[in-house]
Sequence to fold (656 residues):
Amino acid sequence: MAVLLTKKARVVVQGITGHQGQFHTRAMRDFGTKVVAGVTPGKAGSKIEGVPVFDRVRDAVLKRKANASILFVPAPYVKDAAVEAIEAGIKLVVIITERIPFHDCLDFVPFARSKGVTLIGPNCPGIASPGQAKMGIIPNLIFKEGDTGVISRSGTLTYEIVYAMSQGGFGQSTCVGIGGDPINGTNMVDALALFQKDRKTNRIVLVGEIGGTAEEEAAEFIKKKVTKPVVAYVAGRTAPPGKRMGHAGAIIQAGRGTAESKVRAFDEAGVPVAQYPGDVPKLLAST
Amino acid sequence: MKFLEHKAKEIFARYEIPVPRGVLASRPEDIVDPPLPCMVKAQVLIGGRGKAGGIRPAETLEEAREVATQILGMDIHGYRVKQVYLEERLHIRKELYLGLTIDRSAREPLLMATAMGGMDVEEVPREALLMEHIPAMVGLQPYVVRSLLRGLALDKDIGEQVAAVVRHAYDLFRKEDAELVEINPLVVTDEGRVVAGDAKLVVDDNAEYRHPEYAGLDQDRTPLEQEAHDKGIVFIQLDGDIGVIANGAGLTMATLDALNLKGGRGGVFLDLGGTDDPEKVKQAFELLIKAHPSVILVNIFGGITKADTVAMGVKQALDEMHATIPVVARIKGVNEAAAKEILRSVGSQAAETIEEAAELAVKLKSGGP
Fold:
């Protein structure tokens, strides 16, 4: 098993005709993902990488039994595309797009949750279960099948850590990139709960960064509910307050969201925190 | 996007939030007909103006000009005062606080209020701070306002005015894509009016495209940061001297952290993001060179961004600008070998891990190896 995404997923790619959509459709299929349809309004009838393209998500659900969707849609159109997917009955929606106005997220993220839809992202590298399927943009080659779950707020830093894990002999059950925005569909606690339940996952890696209190809440949850070993890394220990460090969510405001606070919370929860990303496998080996 | 007080108040007024009468001036001689008696207020994008002497009273036109002369050009916590706002003086009976922001964990807007206005909200005791979540999907419901008013214990007439301010502020928060709407103090005057004494407004940078009217507003950026912003590049100047360029915010932060652990300090945070455009890489690298770093540390994990594309951009920028800044490069992922070859040709030093790269950058900075 894995969490959230297995080889059973029938994936529709929203925005499949764009450069990113095409490129990653190929990469996802190479990974073993069943990409059954694409959607780009106005492009119905065409094919991308042999995948039929429809105008509407509803058609992809009716004709191709799509049950999961990944969005490579420009930021101004994400709210529209996400709600369309949810209303069409899709149960897993992954949003890669960055720079979405967060007021849009305030609308469609709670809407997705109210409909029982799992939403990953936005502004995330997606989700991958090695040996099964990938909905996202993380390079295929760095993965290795295994029993460690990964939860990350970052993109390339996730690649870095997954690569180091694979090299160090720690394969992944599932890697969930929850995204770097202040409002996200699946947060650290949600993902921790899933990994704690998953029989294939024996340990968990958390990749956090400055801003917000997701790591503190995760640490609290680990103390109470997580019995599997957890190892963490926190980016932004040297970030100055008040500066937004690339991610919309990565900002220290009014003394809140500092790396020290997060590292302290993990310490108190008995979660070792790596100094360098490359140290994660060493810490895993000692758990 | 941050807004100066006078600009925020202009927007408040558009949403029917009562604001005092005021005039803006960038030179004392421009002050002709201020509302008297008035408060002369420094317009800077940072809090703590009052304590720093940036807000002072004036009774007459002459005095207003004199005070303005003193405040204009002042340095307030590193921000030079370019404009003053001269505002009608309010007769304060009571000071409230009203704020709207988001609660990330609840994924909802958060409305905050307290009867202890006028002070830093961080210093208000937790139990005196009223907090109400507003589910954005359904909007501000009357019960939220009722609950807030109950907590503030105001007279009926004042309560109604405050309720209107809350509704208008929420309307503004949503329609203007605000990250923060803060009125501190929200003044109740001796005459029984409710007026926004100060106005803080921050609008989501990602929503800029929906608000073209705010383009070109003076922001809290260095000239290089502004140039980068205009080119769509994430570029932040820090107080160290080593330039860090990487792809992805988390990786860039991790690289800066590694530098620090090795005793170095980052001078520039440059996140290339997911670009695969050699021209954009070149532009980014040119900006980095303009910041005169002692060493440049390149850390690329190739994925969507091909490592060799970045390497080509780096080479072109170095060649064209005839720069001789030492470069440490740590390259992984897609097209790693080609990238390493290109970077070797410009004399950069290669490192295998982030830790090694950081160590090497610090060594190069101090003259070796």
Notes: The first strand of chain A starts at residue 10 and ends at 14.
